[in-house]
């Protein structure tokens, strides 16, 4: 009888072993592999939309995240972080993008995945390049290039050649052209048209900076056509805006009035086409560039109504990018929370696997040692499952409560940011209106003074003193500090600490120097600055030269770019 019981218990034990090994483990592994595979499909789909439809890219990225939230391997997790970094880089949200790149790089290193490390390093270099931190950008590009050469990735080599060339555009034109040619050679071999479009666009801007206008136009047109044919709408909009600005510069440098008007009209046509594409793409970055270009063109044409319209749109769009950046930081916090939870679940899963091995060893010991303890083991297992189920249910409830609390806080922050955006929009319009009013007032007063001076000699002697007093009052009105005090009030509300930052660079800057810097920050042309300050255009050139010396800039440095970056 005892032997029969022992045999029955052994049969039950071996049946349970088969059930555990075949009935539980295999389906779980298959389920995990399936979710990883589905996540990778969503990641690839999202990547295909990055340059054409950011909203669709984010939609598929969220689907990939849902797959990885409960089950995900190291490489898939790294690929997701790299995807999110690329998306936020495309949206010009560089701080958020940089965090995702570093997370991806860390996971790729942990898994020993070389091609992923190279891609993440290139992305980090891109962010520092956009922020004009050349030494850091080159450091990451060359590190990525070293890995690409080691693993024989021609695509990543070419990408890094192009990126290194872009950085050297600012310091060494010959070296930049050399690296561009290396990249183009590989892209032609691989027939990567979209990447060729990027290289040609960069070469175009380089030749424009070197004042090789004809070569610049050839490369920019090549880039525009390639990007249009490949459906790269973001790149297409950028190429159109570059051609618009190139024609604007050609108009400024041409003395022939007919030819100059032709270039202005061509520039407007390119800029509006770029704006149309940007609106369809819903890209604030390229839309802001188009508004800025159109503002400069219409100011030069003295069409102040159009200039004011596009200038207002430029500031609103720029402020929208700022507010979206803040919202993205909030989204990033939520995403980090989710990723942290996912990583904890992965660690828990690995721990569970290790624990399962120990249990199996104990189980075999029990099977071949003390069969009578089987019933106790089964009882403990049932109790543990019930306990795990109860703990899981409690965790789910905690997470649900946290999610409700987070959503409530996010809604409050969104409402507050919306109010802030409206306030900044109103202040930007006040500043633009005030600046244009100063231009128009000084222009009208100068015209009045000129008219009075023209008839001065024809007026009887007894009226000339009265006319002179009128001229003096006009001059006093033009130099009134009240307008500048009001301008400074509006300006500092939009550009906080601007004057303090300039004073840190050089404490000897005069009030006139600070006013010129503020007007440059508003994207006004030298002619418009002269009108606001009520001085001759030649005086502006001299003032700009002295200002560059005070700001410790070289003659080759771009004063406008420096001031607008403060």
Task: Show the helix and strand layout.
Layout: H1 2-49, H2 54-70, H3 74-90, H4 94-111, H5 114-130, H6 134-151, H7 154-168, H8 173-190, H9 193-209, H10 213-230, H11 233-253, H12 257-281, H13 284-300, H14 304-368, H15 374-456, H16 461-478, H17 481-494, H18 498-505, H19 511-521, H20 526-533, H21 537-550, H22 559-564
Helix pairs in contact: 1-2, 1-3, 2-3, 2-14, 3-4, 3-5, 4-5, 5-6, 5-7, 6-7, 7-8, 8-9, 9-10, 9-11, 10-11, 11-12, 11-13, 12-13, 13-14, 14-15, 15-16, 15-17, 15-20, 20-21
Structure classification: mainly alpha
Average pLDDT metric: 81
Largest sheet: none
The number of helical runs is 22
Radius of gyration: 33 Å
N-to-C terminal Cα separation, in Å?
92 Å
CATH topology of the domain at 40-304: Serine Threonine Protein Phosphatase 5, Tetratricopeptide repeat
Low-confidence stretches: 1-31, 326-330
Spell out the helices and strands N to C.
Answer: HHHHHHHHHHHHHHHHHHHHHH
Overall CATH class of the domain at 40-304: Mainly Alpha
Secondary-structure arrangement, i.e. CATH architecture of the domain at 40-304: Alpha Horseshoe
Strand content: under 5%
* Shape type: elongated
């Amino acid at each position: 009888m005892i032997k029969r019981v022992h045999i029955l218990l052994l049969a039950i034990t071996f049946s349970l072993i088969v059930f555990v090994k075949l009935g539980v483990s295999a389906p779980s592994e298959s389920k995990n592999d399936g979710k990883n595979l589905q996540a990778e499909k969503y990641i690839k789909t999202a990547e295909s939309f990055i340059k054409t439809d950011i909203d669709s890219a984010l939609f598929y990225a969220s689907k990939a995240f849902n797959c990885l939230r409960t089950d995900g391997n190291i490489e898939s997790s790294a690929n997701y972080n790299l995807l999110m970094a690329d998306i936020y880089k495309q949206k010009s949200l560089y701080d958020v993008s940089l965090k995702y790149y570093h997370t991806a790089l860390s996971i790729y290193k942990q898994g020993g995945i070389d091609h992923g490390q190279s891609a993440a390093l290139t992305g980090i270099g891109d962010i520092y390049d956009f922020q004009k931190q050349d030494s850091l950008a080159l450091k990451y590009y060359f590190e990525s290039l070293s890995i690409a050469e080691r693993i024989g990735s021609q695509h990543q080599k070419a990408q890094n050649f192009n990126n290194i060339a872009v950085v050297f555009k600012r310091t060494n034109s010959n070296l930049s052209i050399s690296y561009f040619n290396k990249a183009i050679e590989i892209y032609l071999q691989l027939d990567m048209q979209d990447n060729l479009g990027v290289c040609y666009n960069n070469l175009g801007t380089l030749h424009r900076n070197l004042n090789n206008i004809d070569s610049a136009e050839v490369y920019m047109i090549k880039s525009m056509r390639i990007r249009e044919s490949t459906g790269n709408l973001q790149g297409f909009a950028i190429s159109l805006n570059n051609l618009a600005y190139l024609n604007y510069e050609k108009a400024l440098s041409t003395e022939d009035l007919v030819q100059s008007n032709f270039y202005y009209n061509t520039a407007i046509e390119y800029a509006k086409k770029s704006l149309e594409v940007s609106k369809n793409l819903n890209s604030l970055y390229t839309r802001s560039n188009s508004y800025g270009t159109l503002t400069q063109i219409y100011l030069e044409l003295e069409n102040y109504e159009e200039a004011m319209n596009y200038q207002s749109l430029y500031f609103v769009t720029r402020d929208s990018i700022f507010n979206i950046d803040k919202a993205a930081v909030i989204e990033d916090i939520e995403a980090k929370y989710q990723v942290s939870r996912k990583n904890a679940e992965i660690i828990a899963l690995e721990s569970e696997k290790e624990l399962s091995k120990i249990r199996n060893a104990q189980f075999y010991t029990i099977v071949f040692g003390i069969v009578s303890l089987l019933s106790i083991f089964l009882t403990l297992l049932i109790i543990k499952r019930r306990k795990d189920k109860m703990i899981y249910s409690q965790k789910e409830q905690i997470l649900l409560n946290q999610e409700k609390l987070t959503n409530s806080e996010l809604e409050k922050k969104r409402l507050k940011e919306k109010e802030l955006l409206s306030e900044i929009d109103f202040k930007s319009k006040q500043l633009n209106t005030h600046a244009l009013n100063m231009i128009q007032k000084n222009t009208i007063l100068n015209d009045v003074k000129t008219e009075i001076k023209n008839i001065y000699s024809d007026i009887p002697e007894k009226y000339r003193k009265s006319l002179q007093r009128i001229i003096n009052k006009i001059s006093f009105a033009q130099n009134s500090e009240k307008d500048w005090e009001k301008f400074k009030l509006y300006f500092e509300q939009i550009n906080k600490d601007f004057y303090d930052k300039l004073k840190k660079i050089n404490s000897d800057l005069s009030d006139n120097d600070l006013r010129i810097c503020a007007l440059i920050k508003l994207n006004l042309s030298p002619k418009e600055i002269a009108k606001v300050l009520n001085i001759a255009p030649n005086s502006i050139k001299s003032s700009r030269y002295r200002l560059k010396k005070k700001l410790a800039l070289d003659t080759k440095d771009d004063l406008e770019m420096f001031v607008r970056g403060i």
